[in-house]
Design goal:
Blueprint (H helix, E strand, L loop, with lengths): L7 E18 L5 E21 L3 E5 L3 H5 L7 H13 L4 E7 L10 H17 L6 H10 L3 H6 L3 E5 L3 E4 L6 E7 L6 H6 L14 H7 L5 H7 L2 H10 L4 E6 L6 E5 L2 H13 L3 E7 L1
Helix pairs in contact: 2-3, 2-4
Bound molecules: 4-diphosphocytidyl-2-C-methyl-D-erythritol (CDM) and adenosine-5'-triphosphate.
């Protein structure tokens, strides 16, 4: 168990859906998916320090995007409350969220923060990181939270919360680009045309990804036409091996043969005023 006096720092890496096939709408309003989750080297960060009550301090470039919302609605606080109820812990935590990922952008931001909070609390209270109750709590917090809790390349099925771990990708140079528009996940799913275009293929992760697609791209592009320009720019970049939208958008990602080509594309995207994150898929 981690010493209660030493702050715990837990990374909350950005999530990318290398491919996302929507198979059908369920009667509970959710959709059955097949998706390949991958994680970036960079993202948000959670710090946990001992305190009498639980509080949340927002820091970092996107703190302002969440400052107007009630603290209760933040997935970090919801994760901390859920953890206390599930594992019967008492006492609070002063939690700091360093927010580097744009909000409502398809790269899991809030889900990654919730998952990092659960990992940090599990460390503090001596709960195994693979405790089934921790995963059950993650699934109640959001469809992407279990994948973010696992935090490694995985095949997601069901709502995205039935997971099969896959081998690490080994630091693939990746660029994330967001045109500065927030997109509601529920609104994008609601515009899906209901056509099942088939399952993911088989083979190595990158081969499955390359042969796959993101079925949420057309509805997201209809809601946020700026995605078109981002994808066109990324697809035309030198040294690119794959360019696609992640999750429900509007963030798009591109994978590159080398970090130099990635950084050149990042400069082009930044010159257009878009948010960029030059990173690696781990
Ligand atoms: C698009 C993805 O990011 C792909 O990884 C996820 O499926 C979304 O995960 P998330 O943001 O954690 O989603 P949640 O917060 O659980 O759900 C938000 C809303 O998205 C829709 N939703 C989400 C996941 C899913 N499999 N089917 C859905 O239809 C539902 O309308 C739901 O009310
Ligand atoms: N810590 C948080 N960070 C970001 N958003 C949060 C957080 N807590 C609550 N939210 C709410 O969750 C909504 C979705 O934000 P989030 O950034 O998780 O979406 P996303 O990037 O589309 O994630 P996903 O790819 O999992 O769908 C936001 O509109 C915001 O109001």
């Amino acid at each position: 168990m981690a010493s209660p006096m030493i702050p715990i720092v837990e990374p909350a890496p950005a999530k990318v859906n290398l491919a996302l096939h929507v198979r059908r709408r369920r009667s509970d309003g959710y959709h059955e998916l097949e998706t390949l989750f991958a994680f970036c080297r960079d993202g948000d960060r959670i710090t946990l320090a001992p305190a009498e009550t639980t509080t949340l301090t927002l820091a970092g470039p996107f703190a302002g995007a969440l400052a107007g919302e009630a603290e209760d609605g933040n997935l970090v606080i919801r994760a901390a409350r859920g953890f206390a109820e599930t594992f019967g812990v008492t006492g609070g935590h002063a939690i700091t969220l360093d927010k580097h990922l744009p909000v409502a952008s398809g790269i899991g931001g809030g889900s990654a923060d919730a998952a990092a909070t659960l990992r940090a609390l599990a460390r503090r209270h001596g709960i195994a990181q693979d405790h089934p109750d921790l995963f059950a709590l993650a699934a109640r917090l959001g469809a992407d939270v279990p994948a973010c809790l696992l935090g490694r390349t995985a095949l997601g099925q069901g709502k995205g919360d039935t997971l099969r771990p896959l081998p690490p990708l080994g630091d693939v140079p990746a660029l994330l680009v967001n045109p500065g528009v927030g997109v509601s996940t529920a609104a994008v799913f609601a515009r899906w045309d209901g056509v099942d275009r088939g399952p993911l293929g088989e083979g190595a992760v990158m081969a499955i990804a390359a042969a796959g697609r993101n079925d949420l791209e057309p509805p997201a592009r209809a809601l946020a036409p700026a995605i078109d320009a981002v994808l066109a720019m990324l697809a035309a970049a030198q040294g690119v091996t794959m360019a696609r939208m992640s999750g429900s958008g509007a963030t798009c990602f591109a994978l590159f043969r080398d970090a130099g080509a990635r950084d050149a594309a990042a400069r082009t995207a930044a010159a257009r005023g878009w948010w960029t994150l030059a990173t690696f898929l781990t």
